[in-house]
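[recover] target loaded
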């Protein structure tokens, strides 16, 4: 068997802590993955992985191979990439993850030009409003908005997400336009509950002093698209990224209100796993979107 390929296989199993999850990445079945790991262990004369009630764990020898062998593979990949021409570096699959709304409204309109400029590049998107484990899912690049608690990830800030309170013209005509936080507390508020478990918006008091505005929502959801559509349809008031109200037809129906109470902008990051140097494909896509965002006032780093 190919020892280097088996080490690559071992590394992914150690990262994902699963034989079955890794098997499709290599075009193998789970028994074939187990067989190749067993062959590698026999070649080295050590046990690398141990199954337990908590899943797959690395032995001391396995930890050493994972740490040192991983660095060696990265160096080997860097050398191989260096001897390839740029066209080859920019071909193949790049696995990307992002939220549903951001992908539909921001990323999708920009993909035609990106793929036209790089016809050999293939993109595979995993879309979710929830957290996607980049290591477990073997993701190359993630677009994430807001603070990043996981310090093992490498984050490059490529834009800013501005937010405002929005309500439809029909709703405001029926219930009136709030001017103060006290006014707002009497309105029908819609809550995207991935912000925090307890319904509250990180607003300002109108004088740049941060306040947490707590309320009882008439609707809450972990899906930002549902909140957006509910605002457009006149159900109530919601705190939304300004980039979510980009369609001309929608912007005629919906209006930003109490803009001096809007929260501070949140950074938009291009995220990769921390240990490896950026590949040519990762650099290409990150630079492309950063340049696109620089032209967009709603996403501009300096806006």
């Amino acid at each position: 068997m190919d020892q280097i390929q088996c080490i690559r296989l071992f590394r992914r199993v150690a990262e994902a802590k699963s034989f079955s999850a890794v098997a499709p990445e290599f075009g193998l079945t789970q028994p074939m993955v187990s067989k190749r790991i067993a062959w590698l262990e026999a070649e080295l004369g050590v046990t690398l992985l141990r199954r337990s009630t908590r899943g797959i764990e690395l032995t001391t020898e396995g930890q050493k191979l994972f740490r040192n062998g991983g660095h060696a593979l990265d160096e080997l990949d860097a050398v191989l990439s260096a001897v390839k021409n740029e066209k080859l570096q920019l071909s193949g699959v790049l696995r990307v993850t992002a939220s549903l709304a951001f992908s539909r409204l921001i990323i999708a309109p920009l993909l035609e030009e990106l793929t036209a400029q790089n016809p050999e590049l293939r993109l595979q998107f995993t879309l979710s409003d929830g957290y996607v484990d980049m290591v477990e899912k073997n993701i190359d690049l993630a677009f994430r908005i807001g603070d990043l608690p996981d310090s093992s990830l490498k984050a490059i800030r490529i834009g800013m997400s501005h937010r405002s309170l929005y309500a439809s013209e029909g709703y405001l005509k029926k219930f009136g336009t709030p001017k103060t936080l006290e006014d707002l507390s009497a309105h029908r508020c819609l809550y995207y509950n991935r912000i925090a478990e307890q319904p509250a918006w990180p607003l300002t008091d109108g004088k740049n002093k941060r306040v947490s505005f707590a309320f009882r929502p008439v609707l809450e959801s972990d899906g930002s698209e549902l909140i957006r559509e509910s605002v457009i349809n006149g159900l109530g008031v919601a705190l939304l990224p300004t980039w979510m109200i980009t369609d001309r037809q929608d912007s005629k129906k919906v209006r930003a209100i109490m803009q001096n109470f809007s929260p501070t902008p949140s950074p938009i990051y291009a995220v990769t796993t921390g240990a490896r140097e950026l590949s040519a494909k990762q650099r290409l896509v990150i630079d492309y979107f950063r340049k696109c965002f620089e032209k967009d006032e709603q996403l501009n780093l300096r806006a």
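[recover] notes: The longest helix spans residues 60-83.
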